[in-house]
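User: Please predict the structure of the protein below. I'd like the answer in structure-token form so I can feed it into my own downstream comparison script.

Assistant: Understood. Taking the following sequence of 303 residues as input:
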Amino acid sequence: MSRHIEAFLEMLVVERGAARNTILAYRRDLQDYAAFLNRRGTAPGQAASEDVSAYLSGLAADGMKASTAARKLSALRQFHRFLYAEGFADRDATANVDAPRRGRPLPKVLTEAEVDILLEAARAEPGPEGVRLTCLLEVLYATGLRVSELVTLPLSAARREEPFLTVRGKGGKERLVPLSAPARDAMRLYRDWRKVFLPGDGAESPFLFPSRSQEGHLTRQRFGQMLKELALKAGLDPAKVSPHVLRHAFAGHLVAHGADLRAVQQMLGHADISTTQIYTHVLNERLASLVSEKHPLAKRSRD
């Protein structure tokens, strides 16, 4: 089983350009599935749809969310299709397995006022740490980057004066995202303090946000902690604040102000427009508000 998993992961890297975090997630999911099959005395090439269904039923019985189980099933589908295509199995064990039924919850979004409060709190933070945090927030809210894209931005991103960034996203795909004037100003100010965060050996770093971490750049986890701490100081609920929530805020606020959904899709780096359509609830709310305020029958009813 182990060699099959490693062969599959190698294929994801070589043929699809899968990112390191993606590979780590797939490995965890497949190792858990492998342990389940092993307990049933079943080899991966002999697995049937009943085995996959039993695995999913066990996840549900353990209280796993349908959305998480569906993500795991996606990994299993790709794995079993790989086994079938490479001749390691005589069938695709997931072909007749239905995905767990799940609703599609609306994303958590901070209001524009809450984002302003968060930014003001960051600007009030003293010293280099405050300058860096302000830069991180301004860039994140201006671009809607994934947190992994943000913390791994190259140093060259701060050396350009163009009002946009070139970002390498999932699968190595590049896209252009706009960079607001406040974000560019914050980046220029941070650039003067960046050397404070370089490793102690004096070596230069290729990252815009270097750190002494093993990765060589500010980690996703540390940035998340910084946001929670800032939210507390700003009087906001820390549970509502995260890098991903700010990405949602970027998209939601754009749509609320009339941005085209296709343009938002491109800026977020979504491969499929259906992923971006979670923000249509903002459009629906805006349309309902317009009808309530502008439609003559609605106005007559209020009168």
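That's the full token string. The two ends are 71 Å apart (CA to CA).
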